[in-house]
Amino acid sequence: MTGTIDPLARLGRAEEALNAAKLLYSGGFPRDCVNRAHLAMELAALAILTRYGFGSKSHRGVQALFFEHVAKPGLMPMEHAQALAAALRDRLLTDYEEPTADVTRERAAKHLANAEHFLGDVRSLLTAAS
After folding, report:
1. What is the pTM of this model?
2. Per-residue three-class SS string for the chain
């Protein structure tokens, strides 16, 4: 998986997921917004990990690699690792553990804002490294 997908192409897919999250939020679907916001951050994390020769096929693997190789060395703020983890927790809760769990619009908005910031920082890092 490492090195086989262009990081900017993967980031482009992350931006599609972010746009879907925005539409879901504005349409009144906060649970689905969280799902897409998390996907956007995870794909963006994979984009930057791919740039440095890493990859994972699991949510937890992406989190661990992002923390160890991107956030911990200071390439991106630690808050991004925390936002990725928080979005995954809410996504797993509403997608699998408690599908009827309520996610407030405020919580969905927080994940959406985190995803926008996350993707912006990944784009800056990828373009600076080009």
Report:
1. 0.92
2. CCCCCCHHHHHHHHHHHHHHHHHHHHCCCHHHHHHHHHHHHHHHHHHHHHHCCCCCCCHHHHHHHHHHHHHCCCCCCHHHHHHHHHHHHHHHHHHHHCCCCCCCHHHHHHHHHHHHHHHHHHHHHHHHHC
What does the angle CA 78 – CA 35 – CA 112 come to, to the nearest 5 degrees?
Answer: 55
State pLDDT tens for residues 44-88. Answer: 999 999 999 999 999 999 999 999 999 999 999 999 999 999 999
CA nearest neighbour of 91 among 101, 82, 81:
101
Give me the amino acid identity at 96.
Answer: Y
Kindly tell me if the per-residue pLDDT of 102 is higher than 80.
yes
Does the structure show a pLDDT above 50 at 3? no
Rounded Cα gap, residues 46 and 23, in angstroms: 23
CB 25 within 8 A of CB 33: yes
Question: Are residues 38 and 107 in contact, defined by beta-carbon separation less than 8 angstroms?
Answer: no
Residue 71: HSE in the Cβ half-sphere, 13 Å Cα cutoff: 18
